[in-house]
Design a protein that fits this description.
By secondary structure, the chain is α/β, with parallel strands linked by helices. It contains 14 helices and 26 strands. The protein folds into three domains: about 10-110 and about 280-390, Rossmann fold; about 180-265, no CATH class; about 405-500, no CATH class. It is globular, with a radius of gyration of 30 Å.
């Protein structure tokens, strides 16, 4: 498979692994609504924020939508969009790597982009996600009138590039049928099965039983299908369908046979198409009007309309699924996910996480009626929790931060060992079993002994207590500050002991 090379790519490939692993600290004063919610708004660099999410959410995100800087050589107020091409690629590559880890096996990622970087983005996404997992490139008609000031062409569209974590496991939800589609169905013969439309019975594909004469109800003989075509069904099948009044011969009974397809028998939805006109999903001016109404402060230069994000989330997710946007901008994705009863995580850099995203989501919870609110009957409710990036888990020398709490270290160790997120648990040294191996963590006095090193040392008594918590006959991995059991005793009990902090590896 061809891959893309650029200045500093070697460093970009290492960036995700070398990025600091930080804690997430809640800011209660900026959280709003139901505080038992899983919805998260995170302020901070999205590379470090994504890294912080991995031990808890790897493989759990059903749909990722991002609208990164387009690199259009125009300076936006909130983003420096005039990035050198190689810098842009180095920005995107490590973030795509982390996003892939967070995506569920049946999940999909959607990236808004324009022609400046679309083709380069496609190549690096082939590398990160695998070429076979490319699903489609969707054209969004973003404007409703041409720009007469354009030097060459008036650009009418952007793209959404779509990949699956595993394209064989991802399936789109069908879109609702439109009134325009349903109006094509009539009932000129008053068929009791309701309205229908006629469909061609010929095809160009060769069919061994597809050449025969047909006699119309008026008595006219049709020698066969038009030259170069075949009847799509056999003569026996045609006669059976005619007996069931499923063949339309025209108003006078003298036409070429056509199949009647009843609206009552058509699937409820329609297959998503790759061209999305602004009449269906909105345009940039609509997006700016929505943002102006919802935000008292100035708005981003390139917001997306809520109807566009609604379609993405409708196709790619169901109620209760987890949505992620790591370039949250003016919080459109989070707002739409909230109204559509999806869980979400939004990440935004700088103060506008507070000045744009947080106020908009507060208004959503309070029941604002802009965007898609009326279409989905949004009445308000639920909540979100606001987080910022906290201290690093490891210092510059790779040594574990002693202020780290038990749940955080447990999630980190479990992910480092198994590459799966740790399910929420009550305080227990037993973390779980993976591939037949049981994992335990002795840390921060988890066994109830709060003295220095109390309960954090593996002794015969502590081992007995661990086996009372979870009896296990297979191999065990036990993390602790030190072990009083000798090598032969560890081998006898099939135990691998790992010392904190030295054997705790960074992700």
């Amino acid at each position: 498979m061809p891959i893309l090379h650029w200045l500093n790519k070697d460093q970009a490939v290492k960036t995700a692994k070398q990025s600091a692993y930080r804690l997430l600290e809640e800011v209660p004063d900026l959280s709003y609504g139901d505080q038992n919610t899983e919805n998260m708004l995170i302020q901070g660099d999205n590379l470090e924020a994504l890294k912080a999410l991995i031990p808890f959410y790897a493989g759990k995100v059903k749909c990722i939508y991002i609208d990164p800087p387009y690199n259009t050589k125009s300076a936006f107020e909130h983003y420096d969009d005039n990035l050198e091409h190689s810098q842009w690629l180095s920005l995107m590559y490590p973030r795509l790597e982390l996003l892939r880890e967070l995506l569920s096996e049946d999940g999909s990622i959607w990236v808004s982009i324009d022609d400046n970087e679309a083709h380069y983005l496609k190549v690096i996404m082939d590398e990160v996600f695998g070429r076979r997992n490319f699903i489609s490139k969707i054209i969004w008609q973003k404007v409703f009138s041409p720009k007469n000031s354009a030097r060459h062409f008036s650009v009418d569209h952007d793209y959404l590039i779509v990949y699956g974590k595993d394209s064989n496991k991802w399936l789109p939800n069908p879109l609702p049928r439109t009134d325009k589609q349903n109006k094509a169905y009539k009932n000129p013969d008053s068929d009791p099965r309701g309205v229908w439309m006629s469909d061609n019975l010929t095809a160009r594909n060769s069919y061994s039983l597809g050449i025969y004469t047909v006699t119309t109800p008026s008595g006219r003989i049709i020698d066969g299908p038009p030259p170069g075509t075949y009847w799509r069904i056999s003569k026996v099948k045609l006669e059976e369908m005619d007996q069931d009044n499923r063949i339309w011969w025209g108003k006078d009974g003298d036409g070429v046979p056509r199949q009647k397809r009843f609206l009552s028998e058509v699937k409820d939805g329609r297959v998503p198409q790759t061209f999305w006109p602004y009449e269906e999903v909105g345009h940039t001016q609509e997006a700016k009007k929505e943002a102006v109404l919802l935000l008292s402060s100035d708005v981003f230069g390139t917001p997306k309309p809520e109807r566009l994000i609604e379609r993405v989330l409708h196709i790619a997710s169901n109620e209760g699924d987890l949505i992620l946007d790591s370039f949250l901008g003016s919080a459109t994705t989070a707002a739409v996910a909230h109204k559509m009863n999806r869980r979400y995580i939004g990440i935004e850099l700088g103060e506008h996480a507070k000045t744009h995203c947080q106020p908009r989501l507060k208004k959503v919870i309070d029941g604002e009626q802009g965007g898609i609110s009326k279409a989905v009957n949004w009445q308000g409710g639920y909540g979100f929790r606001f987080f910022k990036l906290g201290q690093t888990v490891f210092d510059e020398y790779g040594v574990l931060n002693t202020d780290i709490k038990f749940p955080t270290l447990a999630a980190h160790i479990w992910y480092a060992e198994t590459r799966t997120p740790l399910a929420p648990k009550s305080d227990s040294p037993f973390l779980g079993i993976h591939d037949g191996k049981a994992y335990f963590l002795l840390y921060n006095g988890i066994l109830g002994d709060k003295r220095p090193q109390g309960g954090n040392v593996l002794t015969s008594k502590v081992l007995g207590h661990l086996l009372q918590i979870k009896e296990h006959n297979g191999p065990m991995v036990i993390y602790g500050e030190t072990s009083r059991l000798g090598p032969s005793r560890l081998l006898q009990n099939n135990i691998t002991f790992k010392q904190i902090p030295y054997d705790v590896s960074a992700l």
